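We treat protein structure as text, and this decision shapes the records that our systems exchange. Because each token names a local backbone shape, the row as a whole describes the fold. An entry from our holdings is shown next, in its original layout:
>
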Amino acid sequence: MPFTACEPKGPAITDVFTPGPGTTVFSLRPPPSVVDRFRAEGFWREGNPLQDLVRWRDETPDATALIALRTATGETTRLTYREYARSVERYAGALTELGVGPGQVVAVQLPNVWQVNPLLLACFRVGALVAPVMPTIRSRELERVLARVGASVCVTADVWDGYDHAAALTELAPRLPKLRHRVVLGSRVAADEVDFTRHFEQPWETRHAVALDDARPDPDQVCLVLFTSGTTGRPKGALHTLNTEYATAAAHLTADDQGPAERFFTPHSLTHTGGIFYCLMRPLLTGGCGVVADRWEPEVIGAYLEETAVTQLLIAPVFLTQLLPYARPGRLRTVTTLGTATPAVLVADVARVLGVPLRTCWGMTESGGTLMRADDPPDWALHSVGRISRDSELDLRSDLGEITAERPGRLYVRGATVCLATVGRDTGELTVLADHDDGWYDTGDLAIPDGRGGIRLLGRDADRIGGVLMIPAADVESALLAHPAVRDVALVGYPDDTGGELPAAVVVAVAAAEPPTLTDLRAHLGALGMTEWYWPTRLELVPELPRTAMGKVRKDVLARSLTC
């Protein structure tokens, strides 16, 4: 591979994402032999989603491409494929006028509004690297992401869900020397900010637009950096191409032979991997329609899914449980959950209320994964997360002999859906997957065979906490150690009632201090600006943390104690 990873340089900003031609991240490509093999097998392609959009614009210009709901007002925006393509061209021109082109990084932190999809496609059109950020991420983590990627433009909302995103970004800006433009979507836009509506959505006839017909972005060049906590609890960015994203979306489509009649909905963020592959990539591959809503309000969403004739639903168990009292069968053909364990009551309730068998799948920010198929038994979600897609491979490894439920194997994955590399958010350490273990990626999950060619997940690495989204344990621990009453701490997951995990803080208090309360610790993290869903929801005070001879905390012991 014609690529040399830079050495980690600690928490300071490295040159991994320095804008400009020839920088390391933009020269990163898969080995030629891998490109040739995956293209020959049909897992990757020479085309791109912009060409998909042009196809449907020309073949079905009046078909509905995108439906978006503003839950507060009930207002619904509908874009045809003609309007969708025009928005992408207009947005690409607006980005060009801001100086965005190849070698530049655009961060996007927006809720699930219709503008997200055209904006992401416009970034691909002008050759920029996109760093999507979920709107639940707060200032502390946002600053670290923007610093790591060297974003020259950040697009955000003004005030969303009670949080002033624009004000937070303004406060960070003096510490981000590469940030040239703060673009704000909303009614409160300051004089030194770019008004998204005025700059991006003026009639395209009155401003420069970048045509789609000649769009030829390199599908094997890094175009997305998606941040996750990673298998060790340390946040990292997964570097993806249009082809790794294509492979994930295409694997799900070929499973059920889906076509233009499909309408796809997920409540998960359009600025994270689930939303991107499900509501951006999949509709463009089929000529179908992406359906989104800006807020999760189960009663409203239940009626909305029926009104918009949604056929495909991807949803975490906790959201599905909340939705079922308000859901109707409508035109739903497929309901798929994400995660490790699916409660039996949920499988039964979906069949009873929606009239379809509940499916489940497994994947991660770094890679696509497994999925259930139409020929699986109706209750198979109780026993499996499905089989790996044909473009990828799974490997279960154990040093303890035979893999059993008592001794599950560690799950590794490689193939067309796996990212090219990861970069540490705080360390800058760049790991090129093709250079390690013959391309196998250690997921940190534990699994056993399911008896039908797939796997059953049984848990995850003790340092990795969460349900659909992982919590960066090491980062939270570091912040908690700054509390004056905390001498030692470990963040450990404990099961919730939806098949996911919640974070518990196991704390050794300072001897001379009043022991901290859970409220104290949460307030401490809030004062640091840490994202709220990272905060512990349970506190256990212990005299000492169990450790190995090498000094490592025995989180497996702590995790077992929390479930006793």
Notes: Residues 464-563 form a domain with the GMP Synthetase; Chain A, domain 3 fold (CATH 3.30.300.30). The first helix runs from residue 24 to 27. The first strand starts at residue 64 and ends at 70. DSSP finds 16 helices and 29 strands in the chain.
